[in-house]
TrEMBL record:
Protein's pathway: Amino-acid biosynthesis; L-leucine biosynthesis; L-leucine from 3-methyl-2-oxobutanoate: step 4/4; Amino-acid biosynthesis; L-valine biosynthesis; L-valine from pyruvate: step 4/4; Amino-acid biosynthesis; L-isoleucine biosynthesis; L-isoleucine from 2-oxobutanoate: step 4/4
UniProt KW Transmembrane helix keyword: no
Biological processes per GO annotation: isoleucine biosynthetic process; L-leucine biosynthetic process; L-valine biosynthetic process
Signal peptide region: none
Family annotation (PROSITE patterns): AA_TRANSFER_CLASS_4
Co-factor(s): pyridoxal 5'-phosphate
The reaction(s) this protein catalyses: L-valine + 2-oxoglutarate = 3-methyl-2-oxobutanoate + L-glutamate; L-leucine + 2-oxoglutarate = 4-methyl-2-oxopentanoate + L-glutamate; L-isoleucine + 2-oxoglutarate = (S)-3-methyl-2-oxopentanoate + L-glutamate
Lineage, highest ranks first: Archaea, Nitrososphaerota, Nitrososphaeria, Nitrososphaerales, Nitrososphaeraceae
Protein name in UniProt: Branched-chain-amino-acid aminotransferase
Length: 312
């Protein structure tokens, strides 16, 4: 999208006027935190934001980890996100709030600079699919993954509980490597060789009929889609183990899928040229994917009240 409005420090400004200074601290030293939220059209015809409160709380928590006072309450940020979606007249979209250290004083210490907050929205239909190497899209085939040669950032090096821009240079290297090698996405291991997550998604496997995902202590982000899948699984009597997953378990899993706000629930068909199941979404993946889609569209009353915030 190259038009519409962007919310910047309390005002809605035209797309072309949402500019930053070249000496913005975050541009030089990656001192920013951000979120990704989705807004869906629901069964009653209205649009609703999925888990808005949880996303804005994570944004504030990420800021807190970096000594960043956003200057807005969670409720104010929620309203700003809703105002931005409304101003852009979008029924379904992706919402990107970001907070970052601005300009004024160069040097690694960000603290002398003011924090800016912005919210942009755009249409992002399918994040992982053909076009970046094929697969994972509407052809029914699962995404093709490779285990990255890049180790996921160790939580001793950066606080991986923060969704910070600094984490994404590591993600970008992994994703570019995967795409250049003809895959759709990268899976990243930590320094102990255990599975962490993909470049911008959490990962789940089905092994011996049981669902499992790596713990956040592995270095994985506490994904809100991950949490939603675990809640949906529990509600439907499916046990999900949060445990270390080794690289070889990826190859022998009967099903693998990724979760993320942008990617939603994405079946994996291949990892390092080993086919997973028959290369398409397995039974449990299909079940959880359709239950997740029901929840985001307000078709599952057990979750809609807690998880959906109407835009109007
Ligand atoms: C590194 C990483 N892991 C996991 C996720 C999934 O998190 P969520 O489901 O909250 O979007 C994301 C996306 O935000 C991510 O960037």
């Amino acid at each position: 999208m190259t038009e519409g409005k962007i919310w910047l420090n309390g005002s809605l400004v035209d797309y072309d006027n949402a500019k930053i200074h070249i000496l913005t601290h975050a541009l030089h030293y990656a001192t920013g935190v951000f979120e990704g939220i989705r807004c869906y059209k629901t069964v009653n015809g209205n649009s609703a934001m999925f888990r808005l409160q949880d996303h804005m709380q994570r944004l504030l928590d990420s800021g807190r980890i970096y000594f960043m006072d956003l200057g807005y309450t969670r409720q104010q940020l929620e309203k700003a996100a809703i105002d931005t979606v409304k101003a852009n007249r979008m029924e379904e979209c992706y919402i990107r709030p970001i907070a970052y250290y601005g300009y004024g004083k160069m040097g690694v210490n960000p603290m002398p600079n003011k924090v800016s907050v912005a919210i942009a929205v755009w249409k992002w239909d399918e994040y992982l699919k053909g076009g970046e190497g094929g697969g994972g899209g509407s052809d029914g085939k699962g995404a093709r993954l490779m285990v990255s040669s890049w180790t996921r950032i160790d939580p001793k090096s950066l606080p991986m509980g923060a969704k910070a821009t600094a984490n994404y240079a590591n993600s970008a290297l992994a994703r570019v490597e995967a795409i250049k090698a003809g895959f759709d996405e990268a899976v990243m291991l930590n320094s102990a060789g255990m599975v962490v997550e993909a470049s911008a998604e959490n990962i789940f496997i089905v092994k011996d009929g049981a669902l499992a995902t790596p713990p956040t202590t592995s270095g994985a982000l506490a994904g809100i889609t991950r949490d939603s899948i675990m809640a949906i699984a529990k509600e439907n009597g499916i046990e999900c183990k949060v445990r270390d997953i080794s690289r070889d378990e990826l190859y022998t899993a009967s099903e693998v899928f990724l979760t993320g706000t942008a990617a939603e629930v994405k079946p994996v068909g291949e990892i390092d040229n080993r086919m997973i199941g028959d290369g398409r979404a397995g039974k449990m993946t299909k079940q959880l994917k359709s239950l997740f889609e029901a929840a985001v569209h307000g078709k599952d009353k057990k979750f809609s009240k807690a998880w959906l915030t109407p835009v109007n």
